[in-house]
User: What shape does this take?
Amino acid sequence: MLELKGVYKTFNPGTVNEKRALRGLELSLKEGDFVTVIGSNGAGKSTALNAIAGVWPIDAGSIVIDGQDVTGLPEYKRAKFLGRVFQDPMTGTAATMQIEENLALALRRGDRRTLRSGITKKERDMFREMLKTLDLGLEDRMTTKVGLLSGGQRQALTLLMATLKKPKLLLLDEHTAALDPKTAEKVLNTTDRVIKEHNLTAFMVTHNMKDAIAHGNRLIMMNEGKIILDIGEEEKKGLTMKDLLDKFAELSGSSIQSDKVLLA
Assistant: This one.
């Protein structure tokens, strides 16, 4: 479903601020893979995600989604392949529009616009049933403006919007980092359920080592723009935070005393 082949990205090349963010990144995801991605600051996690999304062009290499080479496609043309949930709960929804209007926009993504009425009764009923699965009471507030929702409610809604038209690939960019622990856990559990129900392929960047171990069927650790560790489902089941810290120290040549040093 996703192939990254020899992907390089350098910011501010030839200047004192030059930063080699990706150095020949190689990655292959099968359909249904749910990969969590961790690494220290500057490891290239978010750069890799943004390269897949087309936020900026890469310097070399190729990006293939479901057999189609999208390397040269701009961000807006890649949107039809991707669902994305951002770190900031304020991003990904239209704050001044109602919950049902946001869902209607997501449902029509990629379709031709017409002059027919905005939301049909059938669509409204479908939205209500979808919102019920979140267990947040939003099904009774469908005409509420999204800007009045809490951060956790907005992230849960954004997740529904991002997966409404089953994307080829779901990109989760530290989507619980701005939430309190209890709300973050609820959003992550919803993420697990939605990915499993729709058999989605997902790429989740996280700052939380515990979440990286607990969620998904595969864990990737990045360092200096490359993947230094790729752990499959069976090995991941018995993995501990200490195991990850020890592996990072061994593979990177750096001594790490805690996950805060690695990930904060």
